[in-house]
Amino acid sequence: MKPEILYEDESLIACVKPAGMPAQGTKSNDEDMISILKNYLYDRGDTDEEPYIAAIHRLDRPVGGIMLFAKNREIAAKLTDQVMAQDMVKYYQAVLTGTLPDFEGEMVDYLLHDTKTNLTRVVKKGVKGAKRAVLYYEVLDEFETDGGPLTYVLIELVTGRHHQIRAQMAAHGAGIWGDTKYNHLFRGKKQGKAQIGLYASRLEFTHPVTGERIILKKEPEGEAFDVIELDEE
Q1: 16 within 8 A of 66, measured Cβ to Cβ
Q2: Of the candidates 94, 221, 227, the residue with the CA atom closest to the CA atom of residue 164
Q3: How many CB atoms lie within 10 A of CB 150?
Q4: What stretch of H or E contains 137?
Q5: In whole angstroms, how far apart are CA 2 and each of 6, 25, 38?
Q6: How much is the pTM?
Q7: Other Cβ atoms within 10 Å of 60 Cβ, number
Q8: 196, 63 contact by CB (below 8 A)
Q9: What do you get for the CA distance between the two ends of the chain, in Å?
Q10: Residue 226 and residue 50: Cα distance in Å, rounded?
Q11: What residue segments make up the domains of the chain, in order of their start?
């Protein structure tokens, strides 16, 4: 597979991760983004050795969109520092089954990740192991369908907790379309490689070498977002 490259230089590479593809190697041995990028650089003749590729942030397997990778350890460390300092800004577009109380707002919750089940749930502040999770949202549109209301939102992810957007939206009564882990409307169905209605559509960061502010965009695509396009017709 040839990756869809949005930005590349000698220090880093940003590309589009297809929904359903893991960001890095899994026990299933399915094709993953890190392997694809390493093969891409090797086949291009950039190096005679295995290229260095490090993911700076993660996207869940059923989530598509922009991912950023470093080509060496020094750049990886500098970009990771930006993530920790919340200087790297990540925006998502999402299709929700349900409605939100306001057309824009902030969600602040405390999330607890269960490593045995690989699920995250919203808990009360002060629960041991719980981490503060923050995001901002803006409603872009709402649709009435035979299956109930759908809401199309833009989300700025402030903290990057495990399954954060998926867990928070579900806890607030508007789960991600197609999400079999958190949305009760889809629970019990097989997720497999299917896409959910969540897409990393914009990424902003400071180039660790040039100091330039880089802004990358990619409009959502796939089955989950076809749902709202059909309802617009």
Answers
A1: yes
A2: 94
A3: 21
A4: strand 131-145
A5: 13, 17, 11
A6: 0.92
A7: 20
A8: yes
A9: 33
A10: 38
A11: 4-232
Bridge partners of 197, per DSSP, are none
Work out whether the CA dihedral 42, 47, 50, 53 comes out positive or negative. Answer: negative
Tens-digit pLDDT profile for the chain (233 aa)? 889 999 999 999 999 999 999 988 666 677 899 999 999 998 887 777 889 999 999 999 999 999 999 999 999 999 999 999 999 999 999 999 999 999 999 999 999 999 999 999 999 999 999 999 999 999 999 998 888 899 999 999 999 999 999 999 999 999 999 999 999 988 767 655 578 999 999 999 999 999 999 999 999 988 889 877 655 54
SS (H, E, C) 24-92: CCCCCCCCCHHHHHHHHHHHCCCCCCCCCCEECCCCCCCCEEEEEEECCHHHHHHHHHHHHCCCCEEEE
- For the domain made up of 4-232, the CATH class stated in words is alpha beta
Each as own residue / partner, the long-range contacts of residues 3-8 (CB below 8 Å, 24 or more positions apart, any chain) are 3/33, 3/36, 3/37, 3/40, 6/66, 6/216, 6/218, 7/214, 7/216
Q: What would the two tokens of residue 41 be?
A: 């650089």
Instruction: Of 128, 130, 126, give the one whose Cα is nearest residue 113.
Output: 130
- Calculate the CA dihedral of residues 90, 148, 123, 22 and round it to 10 degrees: -50
Sequence-separated (6 or more) residues with CB below 8 Å from residue 33? 3, 15, 17, 21, 22, 23, 24, 55, 67, 69
